[in-house]
């Protein structure tokens, strides 16, 4: 199938097997290998990318479903020679350990901070009306779909908290 989508600000016209996942399209057809195939079942979050600003597991989505959509991968978050604030915070707080889950963690955290800024409550939010506070519990709940086999969770929470203006 022929489709056109925008990835990291660049429009791509592709001819793909309609069964190709968004993750496989990114990795195998566009050579954007930052997003990882961890479980290929949507359970680990290593493949998390931003789709029109919202986080999704790219292993669970077919590429042909995204005609005309804007996709941002870890490669599209920073600029050449300049890390995004979350990327820099992950480095500063050693939130990457082996690094396999890091692209998905950072993409998910980017969208998660947008959700908090928009006032979206989570399961652990104190109430549904006030702006959610970026506590450790709030970050952990919102990032629960992204697993880290190295257990760098405290460092990941520290990095997100620094960028999101949570506890110091």
Give an overview in words.
This protein is of the alpha+beta class. It folds into two domains: 2-76, Roll (Ubiquitin-like (UB roll)); 85-164, [2Fe-2S]-binding domain (DNA polymerase, domain 1, Orthogonal Bundle). It has helices at 22-29, 85-92, 102-117, 136-142, 153-164, and strands spanning 2-7, 10-15, 48-51, 54-57, 70-72. Strand 3 and strand 4 (54-57) form a beta hairpin. The radius of gyration is 16 Å and the shape is globular. It starts with a strand and ends with a helix. The mean pLDDT is 95.
Helix content percent band? 25-40%
Estimated structural class: alpha+beta
Query: Helix and strand string, N-terminal first?
Result: EEHEEEHHHH
Coarse morphology: globular
Q: In total, how many domains does the architecture comprise?
A: 2
Average residue pLDDT: 95
Domain 2Fe-2S ferredoxin-type: 1-77
Keywords: 2Fe-2S, Iron, Iron-sulfur, Metal-binding, Oxidoreductase
InterPro entries: 2Fe-2S-bd, 2Fe-2S-bd_dom_sf, 2Fe-2S_ferredoxin-like_sf, 2Fe-2S_ferredoxin-type, 2Fe2S_fd_BS, Aldehyde_Oxdr_Iron-Sulfur, Beta-grasp_dom_sf
Protein name: Xanthine dehydrogenase YagT iron-sulfur-binding subunit
């Amino acid at each position: 199938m022929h489709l056109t989508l925008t990835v990291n600000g660049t429009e791509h016209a592709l001819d793909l097997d309609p069964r190709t996942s968004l993750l496989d399209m990114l990795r195998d057809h566009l050579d954007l290998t930052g997003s990882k195939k961890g479980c290929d079942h949507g359970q680990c979050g290593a493949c998390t990318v931003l789709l029109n600003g919202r986080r999704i597991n790219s292993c669970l989505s077919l590429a042909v479903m995204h005609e005309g959509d804007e996709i941002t991968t870890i490669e599209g978050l920073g600029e050449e020679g300049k890390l995004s604030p979350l990327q820099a915070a992950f480095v500063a707080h050693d939130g990457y350990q082996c690094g396999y889950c890091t692209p998905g963690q950072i993409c998910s955290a980017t969208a998660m901070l947008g959700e908090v800024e928009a006032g979206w409550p989570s399961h652990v939010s104190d109430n549904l009306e006030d702006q959610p506070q970026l506590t450790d519990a709030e970050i952990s709940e919102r990032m629960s779909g992204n697993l880290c086999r190295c257990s760098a969770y405290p460092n990941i929470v520290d990095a997100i908290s620094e960028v999101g203006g949570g506890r110091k």
